[in-house]
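From the shared-data thread, chain only:
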Amino acid sequence: MWRAGLVLTMAAGALAACSPASNEADYNTVHVDPAQARAQATIDRAAAAQGTRTVAGAGLPVATATTTAAQGRKLPVAFQGYWGQTPGDCALANVDARGRLAIDADQLRFFDRRAAVDASREQSPTAVAATLAYKAGGERWKHDATLTLEQGGTRLLLVEQGDAARPGQTIRYQRC
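Structure, as tokens:
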């Protein structure tokens, strides 16, 4: 019988050695990712400042993009691209295409001059008013202009307001 007691004692000792000690198991400890902890802290601060109902209903305050001066000088994407007065102006191999116009987000590139967009204001989805700062051959001048898309965006009408030194002009382009 003492043999059976010895076997039971040894088995109990072996089980005790395999299981963790009572002070090693801490079921109240949760490991949280540091980014999640920061996010939770932000939520907690917002809830404390605004009230839990406001935070739950509206969510956290989101930073909105501030408008910059560059955004006021940007032409809409629908106007950007290559335009030509004649079909020959659209041939990129034609290096003498005097009627070609390239419109970027912030400038117009003609054959012999460039015009930076100083200011632009969208009048409608198909019309933009802009102040253009021209530069050509060492000269600089500014004109107000209106760019209008016609025929489903396949045609462009450029109406430039002139002055005494440089008369304005009206030019029609087709999209290349």
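The beta strands are 81-84, 100-103, 107-109, 114-124, 127-136, 139-150, 155-160, 170-175.
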